Amino acid sequence: MKNEKGVFLINSFLVLSMIGTFSLALFLKNITLYRSSERAANRITAFHLAESGLDRAIVQLRSDLSYAGQGYTNLGNRGGFDIQVETPDATQPNLRRITAAGHVPNNVASAYAYAMRQVVAYVNLTSSDSSYALFSNSSIQMSGNAGTDSYDSRIGPYHLQAPRQNGHVGTNSIGAHMVMLSGNVRIGGNTIVGPGGNPSSVIVMSGNARIEGTRTAASARKVLDPVEIPSGLTNQGNLTASGNSSMTLPGGTYWFSSINITGNGQVNFTGAATVYVTGRVSISGNGFGTAQNLPPNLTIKTKEGQVTMSGNANFYGSIYAPASDVTISGNGHLYGAVVGNTLQNSGNGKIHYDEALNSESGGSTSTSSLLAWTEA
Predict the structure, then answer these.
(1) CB 240 within 8 A of CB 257
(2) Cβ distance 95 to 368 under 8 Å?
(3) How far apart are CA 278 and CA 300, in angstroms?
(4) What are the 10-residue block averages of pLDDT along the chain, 376 residues in total?
(5) How far from 156 is each of 161, 166, 254, 293, 298, CA to CA, in Å?
């Protein structure tokens, strides 16, 4: 027994070592399982964050077709996402590829229990702009120093505001070279062609011409209702002002066979007016005086016949001539909007779209359809 007195101590040590080793193994296993479950939970969260980034991109594209994505956006303790938007095929300018990645707990790959999930989606965008500075049923030709932008007359005069980028130009046409921009033309907004059209072939630019917005195809053809003379109106013949003559008319609704303003002639309206014309419209000289210089206070609607606007006088109002060829030249600026069958805009005068003319739309929007998505 004296020779075996250390056996018990040794056996006890071995048992304790086995228990310790087993406990350590069990502890390490639990740590591994905990970390694995944490990473699994983070992967699920990262996937949802990636989907959130995808949803964010689609929403942004509906209001801004030029949206190109954003860098890492932290959403708090549970991570964040980053977004990249591309146009993968130049022949399909309405197609966007969205790559959205979710990161947990942040975008540092060495972070504890880091997880990243990435989704890729293809979205087709179509413009649904309901308001335009210039809109043509067919062709548009702009040259010289012509251009567009926008402002809001409800805020104040144009010169007291920073120009906005809602001076959209649109056409129902899908034919090649139907929108021609040359010289120093600057479009402060989007350019939209007819549904199914390829903007790359419809729009032709030369010189220093540039489009500061997007180039897309419309989701549907814009319906231009024909001009009908309201019942009860009396044709007041030809509206003419020439030389140094001027004429003042109260606000109301008028019907004229034609309009011809030349020289220093001017027609002034003291209130909101809508003018229907069944024939030719020629405005030069000092043109029209609109009440308070507010474009919503004057609308000229022509049933047929050419519309010509020239000279140095500014025009405040909208021209709606869906069956007419419209020519705008000279140095005068137009504050409002123009619709015609064809449009030619040259000279130094620009079109400043008044967003007050379409207060419900609030600018350009687009619709989107999700074509496909997958996890990268």
Answers:
(1) no
(2) no
(3) 11
(4) 62 74 68 73 92 90 79 89 91 85 92 92 70 94 95 94 94 96 95 92 95 89 89 94 90 95 91 95 89 95 92 91 93 94 92 82 54 86
(5) 7, 17, 28, 10, 17
Query: DSSP alpha helices (H): ranges in the chain?
Result: 7-63, 199-202
CB atoms within 10 A of CB 312: 15
In this prediction, residue 127 carries a pLDDT of 55
* Predicted local distance difference test score (pLDDT) of residue 76: 80
3-state secondary structure of 181: strand
Residue with tokens 């549904």: 195
Q: In the prediction, which pLDDT does 363 show?
A: 40
**Contact of 309 with 329, CB cutoff 8 Å:** yes
At 205, which amino acid appears? M
* Angstrom distance (rounded) from CA 65 to CA 57: 10
Order of strands, sheet of 246-249, starting from the edge strand that comes earlier in the sequence: 246-249, 266-269, 288-289
Burial of 259 (0-12, 13-18, 19+ CB in 10 A): buried
Q: What backbone phi and psi angles, to 5 degrees, belong to 108? A: -105, 115
The 3-state DSSP composition of the chain as helix, strand, coil percent (nearest 5) reads: 20, 40, 40
- pLDDT at position 150 is 95
What is the distance between the alpha carbons of residues 286 and 316, in angstroms, rounded to a whole number? 12
The pLDDT value given to residue 130:
54
Among residues 167, 171, 166, 165, the alpha carbon closest in space to that of 135 is found at 171
Write out the two tokens for 43: 């992967």
